[in-house]
Amino acid sequence: MRIEIWSDVVCPWCYIGKRRLEKALGSFPGKEDVEIVWRSFQLDPSAPAIPVETVAESLGRKYGGGVEGGKQMIDRVEAVAAEEGLLFRHHASLRVSTVDAHRVLHLALETGGPELQGRLKEALLAAYFIETENVADHDTLARIAVAAGLDEARVRAVLATDEYADAVEADVREAAALGATGVPFYVVDRKYGISGAQSPEVFADVLEKAWNEAHPKLDLVGGGDADACGPDGCAI
Amino acid sequence: MRIEIWSDVVCPWCYIGKRRLEKALGSFPGKEDVEIVWRSFQLDPSAPAIPVETVAESLGRKYGGGVEGGKQMIDRVEAVAAEEGLLFRHHASLRVSTVDAHRVLHLALETGGPELQGRLKEALLAAYFIETENVADHDTLARIAVAAGLDEARVRAVLATDEYADAVEADVREAAALGATGVPFYVVDRKYGISGAQSPEVFADVLEKAWNEAHPKLDLVGGGDADACGPDGCAI
C-alpha cells in the first residue's frame, strides 16, 4: 500500500496530521506493507527566501490585531498540537519560502527512498515548528538534511541549482488535478483521498478498507467457458 | 496498466488468444500505457526434453484413433488459428518440454523488460506452431533468443544451468493461487482475471474497465471539514 501525502513544511495541520496517521499506523496489522511518500505543496509561494517577519507578525498584518492578534490565531493550533505531543513554538516561526526544502525532500526520495525522505520530513517539521529554524536558509537545510542521512555534497549541489524544481511544480499541479485545495492531503493507493488532519480513526478506517482492496479475490470476466488448454489437454 | 498472461509455448489457444488481445489493444486508446508480462505455465510437465512423437501422435495415443485421430482433433484449432491469420502446422508440432523456453523468457524479462520478452514470446510461438521447431532444443532456443535480441552468452549460460527454474515454478504456483486451471489466463492489474482465448470484444471491455479504474476520481473519505491549511491560510 502506498500513501502519498501532499504537505508543506510550514503547515501546522500537516505535522498534526502526521502524528494522527502515525497513531493509526501504529495499531494497523498491515503497517509493514505501507509506504509513505511525501509530495510537495506550497501554501505560500510568495513567501520570501530571506525572512522578514514571523508567522504571527504576518497574520497580524494580514488579518489585523498586530503581532498579538497573530499569536492569538496561532493559540488554537498550538493547543491541538500539544494534544498530539507536539510542543509547537509556531508563533515564533518565520514566514519563509519552502521550495528549497521541497527540492531536498525530492533528493531524499530519489537517493534514499521513502525511509530517508520520511526522516528528513520529520526533521524539517520539527526544525520549523519546534526549533523555529529558518528552513529556507541553505546552511540550515544542509545541516538538517545531513543529520537525516543525506550526502552533503549532493544537498549543496541541489541547493546551488534549480534541481528538482520541476518535480516540486509537478507535485503541486498533481495535487490540483486530484482535487486538493489545501494540505495535508492524503492519497491512498491512488484510490482514496483524505483532506485535512483527520482523526486517527478516519485514517484507520481507510487503511483497513484499502488493505482489503489491495488483496482482492480476482473478479473473473467473460465466463469460464472460452477455449483453453489444461492438464487434460486443449479444447480442440 | 499491467496485463500478466500465464501461457505455455506449446498452447495453441495461447497463441490465438494473443492475436485476439492484440486486436483489442490495436484500437484501445490507452494502449501506450499497457505493459504485458508473460508468465510461465507448463501444460505438460512430463513432456520430454528430447521429442519422441508429434502432438498428433501423442493425442492419438492418448484418446485413440492413432495419428489420424490426433490430426483430426487438431483440425479445429488450426481452422480457428487461420481465422486469426495464424497458419498453424500444429499437427506436426513435437511434444516437448517447455521449461527451458520459460527460463529463457524469464531471462528476457529480467534483462530487457516486457518489450524484449514480448518479442521472444512471439518468436517462440511462431517457431513452435508455424515452423514446427523443437523449442526444447538448446541450439534452437539460443538461435531464436539471439534473433529476438538476447545476449547469446547469457542464454547459453542459463540453458547450461537451472537458472530461473525457481521463477518458472513460482509462476506456476501463482497461477494456481489465482485460480487458473488452464491457459491462457490473463490478469489485469491484479484485479481482473480472464480465462481462455476470449474474443477481442471481451478483452476490449476489460481494458476499458481497468483503464477507468486505474485513472480514478479519488473517493474522498472522512469529510472535507478537517483542519487544513490552504492558500488563504490555516484553520487556526
TrEMBL record, chains A, B:
State a single Gene Ontology molecular function: oxidoreductase activity
Instruction: State the superkingdom.
Output: Bacteria
CDD domains reported in the protein's UniProt record: DsbA_FrnE (cd03024)
Pfam families for this protein = DSBA
Q: Which InterPro entries match?
A: DSBA-like_thioredoxin_dom (IPR001853), Thioredoxin-like_sf (IPR036249)
> DSBA-like thioredoxin domain: from which residue to which, for each copy?
3-207
Provide the protein name: DsbA family oxidoreductase
Organism the protein comes from: Nocardioides marmoriginsengisoli
